[in-house]
């Protein structure tokens, strides 16, 4: 007979069409959650080995994993409006990839506010690894690493065919116009943060918090190292 203690509820997946929200919640143990855009409008979810199929009409994608050593992998097209991930406690791994539309150049075709998403990540407690790869047209990324010795990599792709160094006012808007904002709060712990950008037309707000930290920012072919305690 199976004991109650050995049972797991696994992750739950709920879609609220009236809100346009897809909510995925972990069960406090080690969850494995994988999310993929299968078309411009569909998102497919596989959680803890179960395929929940594709969902359409998503305005908000919310993931909360609670405790446990979780693995979350999210790969989306550029038409989603809002992504929120909270990893909770545990030594977690999060991969987020958001692609640009084919041929998109934010200097020529600015993203539509209701079609390109904002991303918020709360890594919570634990020694977490977060890897974020973004297309050049994203408007906003916020990452809070929380407590623990965390590692964060953020990479923003080069816009297709764009060369910001040329400075053509017909193509590249003058300051103070920017194409995106990145906010990072490293929190407590000995953290490593690496940010790679194609050019300097991004607002960045980085607080390394307390601990023996390392910050590396690469803009084009220029690199700057920093640390904090």
Structural class: mainly beta
Mean pLDDT level: 82
Write out the strand line-up for the largest beta sheet, numbering strands in chain order: 5-4-3-7-9-11-13-15-17-18
Describe the oligomeric state of these chains in a short phrase.
single chain
Rg, Cα atoms, Å: 19 Å
The main β sheet shows up as: 10 strands, mixed
What is the share of helical residues?
under 10%
Cα(first) to Cα(last) distance is 53 Å
Structure description:
- This protein has 229 residues and is mainly β.
- The chain has one domain (20-228).
- The chain is built from no helices and 18 strands.
- It has strands spanning 12-16, 21-25, 32-37, 42-47, 50-56, 60-64, 71-76, 82-86, 93-98, 118-122, 129-134, 140-144, 151-156, 180-185, 192-197, 202-207, 213-219, 222-228.
- The strands form 2 sheets. It has a 10-stranded mixed sheet with strand order 5-4-3-7-9-11-13-15-17-18, with no helix packed on it. An 8-stranded mixed sheet has the order 1-2-6-8-10-12-14-16, with no helix packed on it.
- A hairpin with a 2-residue loop joins strand 17 and strand 18.
- Residues 1-7, 103-115 and 161-176 have low confidence and may be disordered.
């Amino acid at each position: 007979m199976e004991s109650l203690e050995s049972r797991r509820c696994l992750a739950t997946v709920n879609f609220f069409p009236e809100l346009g929200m897809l909510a995925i919640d972990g069960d406090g143990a080690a969850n494995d959650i994988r999310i993929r855009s299968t078309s411009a409008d569909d998102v497919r979810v596989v959680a803890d080995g179960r395929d929940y199929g594709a969902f359409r009409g998503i305005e908000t994608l919310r993931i909360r994993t609670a405790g446990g050593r979780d693995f979350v992998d999210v790969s989306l097209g550029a038409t989603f409006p809002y992504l929120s991930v909270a990893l909770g406690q545990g030594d977690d791994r999060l991969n987020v990839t958001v692609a640009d539309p084919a041929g998109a150049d934010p200097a020529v075709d600015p993203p539509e506010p209701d079609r390109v998403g904002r991303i918020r990540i709360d890594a919570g407690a634990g020694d977490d690894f977060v890897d974020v790869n973004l297309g050049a047209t994203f408007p906003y990324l916020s990452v809070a690493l929380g407590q623990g010795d965390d590692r964060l990599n953020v990479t923003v792709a080069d816009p297709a065919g764009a060369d910001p160094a040329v400075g053509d006012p017909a193509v590249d808007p003058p300051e103070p116009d920017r194409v995106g904002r990145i906010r990072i709060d490293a929190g407590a712990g000995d953290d490593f943060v690496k940010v790679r950008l194609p050019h300097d037309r991004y607002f960045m707000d980085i607080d390394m918090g307390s601990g023996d930290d390392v910050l590396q920012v690469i803009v084009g072919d220029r690199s700057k190292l920093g640390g904090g305690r």
